[in-house]
# Entry
Amino acid sequence: MVRRLLVLLLFGATAQADVVVTVDRDRVELNESFTLEIAVDSNTTSDPDISALEADFFIGQRRDLSNTTIVNGQIKRSRTWSYNLMAKRAGDLTIPPISVDGEQSVPLSIRVSEPTYEPPGEADVFITTEVDTTETYVQAQVLYRIKVYRAVATRQPTLREPVFTGAEVLIEVAGDERNYESILGGKAYAVNERVYALFPQESGQVEISPARFEARVLRDGRITGRKVFTSESQVVDVKPIPPVPPEFQGAAWLPARDVTLSEQWSEDPGQLAAGEPVTRNVTVSALGQLETQIPVIEPPNAAGVNVYPDQPELNRRTETDGIRGIRQEQYAIIGVTGGDVRLPALELPWYNVETNEWQVARLPERDVGILPPDVVVAPPAEGTETPEAGSSAVVTVQSPFWRRTAELLGALWLLTLIAWWWSSRPNREEREPPELPVYKQQARLLKQARKAALGGDASGLKAAMLEWAALQWPDRPPRSIGALAGRVSSPLADELKLLSRSSYGPGEPQWDGQAIAKAIRSFSLLPEAGKQSSAETLPPLMPQT
# Structure
């Protein structure tokens, strides 16, 4: 996770200079390098004073970049220095304040662990894989990490994705590829690291085949034939969803490492005018979970206000511990009558996969003050004396518009109550069963798709896959199998393209149901899915020269 620390230093009354300290990773192994960046928002001619780093770090290559931008005639200059660092000892180390032109940054913490791997013999090239846990729950995140070590230059490198068998699993790319150096057995290696977030969709075992790295090796001025290097295999046990405790009955299943609730208001909720809407944004942040898995938080209802939910915003970001899903609920709140209104607390039960216990993320009760519709606060008239501190000028104004608005909203609220009563009568028809969670719907659709593929049912296969895709991308679902192929990895992408061509091409359909069924069991979503046409999930590793 990129750590950004900003130091705001005042120059006189108006000038301000920013010093930003950044590391590409805040958790490294003792023999691994990482990148430190120091940036200032000026084109200074001075260099940073990094002498304090020498106590705990080896300082390697340095890069310097100056940048000038012109926006609306305003010229802005900045300068950035990058350093390759390697820790001298394991433990929780501190990057001390860095000085630039007499100004200093704040300290930054780095966790350095003991080396995990040793090279197999005198190998110049090898590949390793690891999972952050070998036991998890349905829908909980597992981080799968691939590292390719090279002490020599290679040509035509290719990384073959492993095959996932057993329990159904959804695969997401967890961040960009990282490149750094590592010292193993006194030998320097260039390391390429990729991290995937795995989300098992059912209980059982997820079996991960060895990853393969293929390349021609440049040694003593000669290029060898193509060589294949393989990693170890991995197995993850997936436990079923545990029973929900009585105090959390009806709670949605949300396994994560950390869940928080926060809120923002468009206006101060302490003093709102009746009849005027105010927006309340409630944000749910879940580490180790996808944004599509975060359940809906029902809007808080209270006498004296009307609450109207809006469409939620779904986002994510990648951190050291994986994917953090973010769901933002938006509510328009309109006060109906004057007075103080207490909005009830918001609670979201979730399951902590690190402590194996249910917990509750909570926003406390919120008091909202509603001004009556016929009272407004007005400034004193011109020429009158200004009231003393602590006093206020209140003018009572008859406002028929807001009174009618409040009456209309009250009538709408009454109609809503009548409609609710009518729909909940005991003699009405049997209710439909509650809708399944998204991940269960998707798992069911993928099973239907595999069954249709094995049975040669092209129409059923297309329908199930497109319905699955509509749940995965509700805002921009693909309209055809060909479009879906551009959002998933190979070999599923290749098989879907063949299915699409055979459906509209001349002659007998030529598609392989067995191959599609097998590909559906393990595939990943492409980064920026739907915005690019490439079907390759991972670009080839760049050769080290």
Observations:
- Residues 438-524 form one domain.
- The chain has a mean pLDDT of 80.
